[in-house]
Amino acid sequence: MPSDVPLRSVLAPLKVLRIAVTGMLMGTANLIPGVSGGTMVLAMGLYEEFIEAVADVTALRLRPARLAFLMVLLGAAGLAVVLLASLILYLLFIAPSFMFALFIGLTLGGTPTLLRMIGRVNLSCGVAMLAGLAVMAALAFTTQAADMPRNMAMDFVSGVIGTMAMVLPGISGSYMLLALNQYDRVIGAVDDLRQMNWSALRIVIPVGVGVVAGMVGIANALRYLLHRYQKATLGFLMGLLLGSVLGLWPFGRAPTEKILEKRSPEQLRLYAESIGLPVAAGLDGRERIDHLLVAWSLTGRSPVMVARKHPDALLRAFAEREGLFVPADLQGAALAEHIARSWQPLQAGRPSAREVVAALFALVLGFMTTISLGRLAPKG
Q1: How confident is the prediction for the chain on average, in pLDDT?
Q2: Which of 227, 254, 257, 341 is deepest in the core (most CB within 10 A)?
Q3: What is the DSSP letter of 253?
Q4: Residue 276 region by backbone torsions, left for phi larger than 0, else alpha for psi between -120 and 50, else beta
Q5: Which one-letter DSSP state was computed for residue 131?
Q6: Residue 329: what are its φ and ψ, rounded to 5°?
Q7: Cα within 13 Å of Cα(28), Cβ side
Q8: Is the pLDDT of residue 138 over 90?
Q9: Rounded average pLDDT over 114-141
Q10: d(Cα 82, Cα 192) in Å, to the nearest integer?
Q11: For residues 159 and 206, is the Cβ–Cβ distance under 8 A?
């Protein structure tokens, strides 16, 4: 978008509609672990305008056309976040395999658009692509299990990280938050605020400040890199995009605490029965949620990580309900390891043929959806 673009061109009805639809897609993507809002903007053909607008506004070059563009885009994105937070939490609960396969497809669907932008791949582009892939692989296989703190400082960091989904095509802020164990905290706070639970502001405000700070830094840095080292930068973004799917294996995914907290007692009872956990099905309230969370941790985490995530009292309560003998002197990782050895892990990670077929369908659907959006982008 050239600097002398008149305001009326941005406010033309079809242009406003296109920007608003892009914003809704961007906001929806930012709710989903693994999907990049930046990819959605890229697919709709507005990415360069977005980066230029953000960089200008954050540098206090307040041109009316830039401001109007961002107001429509980010306003629509914010509306999508507010309206769809509950729905996304619900779908991640009832159909996690389908949803995460859909996320993989939506993410990979951004590759043709990036490839068109890269053109012929040179050495610097190839090396940068491998570097981006390595970054995401490291996050998928190491950071994913990290037990990060949950406080105001981390909320600010979460906002900065979440900005990546809005600015960088191929890297998902939601995925990064999931890997850092902050996703359910942030999206849950947004949903709480929508329901007039004002205590959520203690989380939402520092996240929002982080979003603004992150956008200022990332947008200006990215504009500089795209102008000076375009192929290498685009190659790195391609590596991030391809690598972002590594941590999104769709089967046997544990629900987050916030997802469980939003479900009704009957939904939780049926869920406990479906994953073969009858003890949890017979509990009520917070005890049922805690039992489910401990069971999933014992199934998919190392004893050290289980001990970091759950206090000894909660682990002993779990063992008592499951009828397991636990020596009184055990604590921490030793306690978690003893319970894990004495207890039969959940078998929910083994997908049925129906789940596999549904996941494949979702993957293709997500891929073709982003491809179709990419074809709406202007040519040339």
Answers
A1: 82
A2: 254
A3: P
A4: left
A5: H
A6: -90, -5
A7: 13
A8: no
A9: 86
A10: 10
A11: yes
